[in-house]
Each structure stands twice: as structure tokens, then as C-alpha cells.
Design brief:
This protein is mostly beta strands and about 270 residues long. It has three helices and 16 strands. The strands form two sheets. Strands 1-2-3-4-5-6-7-10-11-12-13-14-15-16 form a 14-stranded antiparallel β-barrel.
């Protein structure tokens, strides 16, 4: 069991000082779009669940990436959003690793507007670890988030993951980290969005995440992001084909190299 509980350390060590392998690199780009009135989608709601409140129709997305071009560090994600008259629901599933060593996370989220200026969100998570020959362990955590609509162009928000420091096993001897983040977004124009977020992950120094997104035409968009804590650049470009959006993604770590990825989003036109 002790060797099994080293799994979170192995996963986080794989990025040498920053974003854990369980978190797909593209979330650094998509997550900050939660602070936009025009660019938020089901992927941004994964990073700030309060953004689910802005989803008007059923949406679904899948993504995959090969962390640092290593087959053993494949990361796959699925996200769904379902609006209802009583608030909006979201579901996510993430898988990182391979058959011998892997981590699976399942999350169920709920968000709703609290008036015209504030949206609230919560998510409950199950994380399971499995190592061939060593067994398995699991942990239950939750996220809390809020978004404040400061006007037609400005949004601000706050998000916390695992505030109680829950961990794996009956004695929780190996804790999952807590993560606190506060962000601000500015829709410069209908084509351009700028987002900035301050983030603090347990065990790592605080950092600033930024993203700029540009849509030169209704069918095309591009975005560029930076995580200061790890000096990781991320970029993506995509095309909107009727109800389906395709996006090619990549992130560049200064020491560990490139992480390519691809995402597909289904979102009916409003």
C-alpha cells in the first residue's frame, strides 16, 4: 500500500515543478475562458464549475494528449454539460497513465445563477489509483467556485479544489494537494479575450496563468497561454464546423519538452 500511495508523487514529479499529470495541459487554455462572456464552454467549466451556469444547451467534449511525448503519460478526458430548469449539471472523467500505473477521476458538478451578477458552482470528485501488483486506493474530494459578472466585458471568479486536504486510503496518509485560484477576464472585443489567474497549489510556489484568445472569423480561433510557475507555454488553434469544434493543442515545458493534444467539442448552435 505504501508503494501504491507514492503514485501521486510519481505523477506530479513527471512535470518537475508544476502542473500535475492528472490535469490535462489544455485546461490552462480553456479554464481561463470561464471568465469570458463569449468564449466559455464545457471545458472551461471543468476548471471553474460556476461557468456551467452560462451553458444554454447540452454540450459534450473529448480530448487527449501525450504528455511529453511519452506513451506512459497519456491523458484522456470527457466532459458533459446538461442545462435544466433547476440549474445546470456537469460530468467529467479523466484517465492518466497506462495499464500498469494509472489514475482515474470522475466528477459530478452543479452550477446556477444567484441573481444576474453571480454564479455559483460545486463539484464532487472520486479519484482512483491503480498499480499492477500493488492494488488500488481512492479518495473523495470536492471543488467550490464562484463567478462575478462585473459588466458586459469584465468577469472575476474564485475556485478551490480539495480545501479539506482529503487523501488516499482509510488513514489518508497520502493527501491530494489543495489548489486555490482567483481570476479576472476581459472581453476586449467580440473577437479578443484576455484572462489572468493567480493560482496556489500546495507544495508549489504561487503562479500567474494568462491566456489570450482571438477569433478572426466565426469558424476560426486561436489562443496562447503561459503558466509562470512552470514557464510552460501552451497554444491551440481550431475550426468550428457547424456544431462541432476541432482544436489542435500543444504545450512546451522548458526541460521536459512538448505535449501535443487534440480536442473535439459538440455544442449546438444557439
Amino acid at each position: 500500500m505504501k508503494k501504491l500511495l507514492l503514485l501521486p508523487l510519481l505523477l506530479s514529479a513527471s512535470i518537475a515543478g508544476g502542473q500535475m499529470a492528472r490535469f490535462p495541459a489544455h485546461w490552462g487554455l480553456a479554464g481561463l475562458a470561464a471568465y469570458s462572456n463569449r468564449f466559455a464552454d464545457v471545458f472551461s467549466a471543468v476548471s471553474n464549475q460556476a461557468a456551467l451556469a452560462a451553458v444554454k444547451k447540452f454540450s459534450a467534449g473529448v480530448s487527449g494528449e501525450r504528455r511529453f511525448l511519452l506513451k506512459s503519460l497519456n491523458v484522456s478526458s470527457v466532459a458533459l454539460a446538461l442545462p435544466t430548469g433547476s440549474g445546470n449539471f456537469g460530468w467529467r472523467a479523466d484517465y492518466a497513465g497506462n495499464q500498469a500505473l494509472n489514475e482515474t477521476t470522475l466528477g459530478l458538478a452543479y452550477a446556477r445563477n444567484a441573481g444576474s451578477k453571480i454564479a455559483l458552482g460545486v463539484q464532487f470528485n472520486y479519484t482512483g489509483l491503480k498499480a499492477s501488483g500493488y492494488g488500488s486506493a481512492s479518495a473523495l474530494t470536492f471543488d467550490l467556485s464562484v463567478l462575478c459578472h462585473l459588466g458586459t466585458q469584465w468577469n472575476a471568479g474564485f475556485h478551490v479544489y480539495n480545501p479539506l486536504g482529503n487523501g488516499f486510503g482509510k488513514e489518508s496518509t497520502e493527501q491530494l494537494p489543495y489548489v486555490y485560484a482567483a481570476g479576472l477576464g476581459y472581453d476586449i472585443s467580440p473577437q479578443v479575450f484576455l484572462g489572468v489567474e493567480a493560482e496556489k497549489m500546495e507544495g508549489w510556489p504561487p503562479g500567474i496563468n494568462t491566456v489570450i484568445q482571438y477569433r478572426p472569423a466565426d469558424q476560426l480561433f486561436a489562443r496562447l497561454g503561459l503558466r509562470s510557475a512552470t514557464a510552460v507555454f501552451a497554444f491551440g488553434f481550431g475550426v468550428q464546423l457547424n456544431r462541432v469544434r476541432l482544436e489542435a493543442l500543444a504545450s512546451l515545458h522548458p526541460y521536459l519538452g512538448t505535449t501535443p493534444g487534440l480536442s473535439i467539442l459538440y455544442a449546438p448552435l444557439e
